[in-house]
Amino acid sequence: MLAKQRQSMILDHVRRTGGVRVSELTDLLGVSDMTVRRDLDVLARDGLIEKVHGGATLASASSMDEPGFEAKSSRELGEKDAIGRAAAKLVRPGTAIALSAGTTTWALARYISHIRDLTIVTNSVRVADVLLQGPGNPTVILTGGVRTPSDALVGPVADLAIRSLHFDVFFVGCHGIDPQAGLTAPNLAESETNRSFIRCARTVVLIADHTKWGTVGLSSFANLNEVDILVTDTGLPKDALGTAADHIDRVIVAGEDGDAVLDTAEAPNSAERAG
Fold first, then answer.
1. Which helix (H) or strand (E) holds 77?
2. Distances from the Cα of 38 to the Cαs of 29, 30, 70, 206, in angstroms?
């Protein structure tokens, strides 16, 4: 198992239980005490956990917490990969699409880099790099702007570039999803740039793993009913799935292989969709 995979498993376990002992992790992962402690050091350095005597607890987060790209890329690896594969099936050759910055859109970029005749606008250098290295040879437009800790390009330059364009589909990630607050980000400028994308898109697709539900960042940039499609993973609780289906026209739950285990477009009502 790769170190990043171990660290993702540790983080997921801490999130589910609130805390963990080193001895539990050595049994769970089948590795040495020293290996576990090194993994905990990495997660603590990235601000994802807090080390305590004999183990670790989940780091306390604030509405302005903005982890860097590297820190976020170690979280929910399997879920993001599945979501990226499922969301890629919504992309058609010859269309104009936009991708926000983020590790889930970065996962999506890997699965659409072979699709021909795409015009893709993004405010992420990381996403642009993936697309330009792929075999599809898309037209990639990078917005420009001021770089955030999460590697998003934001601000007046980015907003001006986006507002003059029109997209068939906008794929957006987020820091948090909440029924009242909607989609949120910890950075005010990033929220405004995401709003610019949304205004210029025919269809808005939210790609977000289950850990984003119930998290509220500093700034809201969209209500749930402004989202046309949500692509998420099987970890989303049933009550949250029901709430999402009540506000969003189509909810796709991606299985481990990227195939949809639930697509509300195929269900006649929200009660069935949430089931």
1. helix 77-88
2. 13, 14, 17, 34
Farthest CA pair distance, the chain = 56
Range of the domain at 85: 71-274
For 185-234, how does the pLDDT look when each residue is reduced to its tens digit (9 = 90+)?
888 889 999 999 999 999 999 999 998 988 888 889 999 999 999 999 99
Residue count (the chain): 275
Residues 25 and 111 grouped into a single domain: no
Q: Which of 87, 23, 97, 29 shows the shortest CA–CA distance to 56?
A: 23
Considering the domain boundaries, does residue 65 fall inside one?
Answer: no
CB 9 within 8 A of CB 2: no
User: Are the CB atoms for 97 and 105 separated by under 8 Å?
Assistant: no
Query: How many whole angstroms separate alpha carbon 194 and alpha carbon 84?
Result: 19
Nearest-angstrom CA–CA distance, 72 and 48? 9
Tell whether 138 and 196 lie within a shared domain. Answer: yes
| pLDDT tens-place string over residues 142-196 | 999 988 877 789 999 999 999 999 999 999 999 899 999 999 988 888 999 999 9
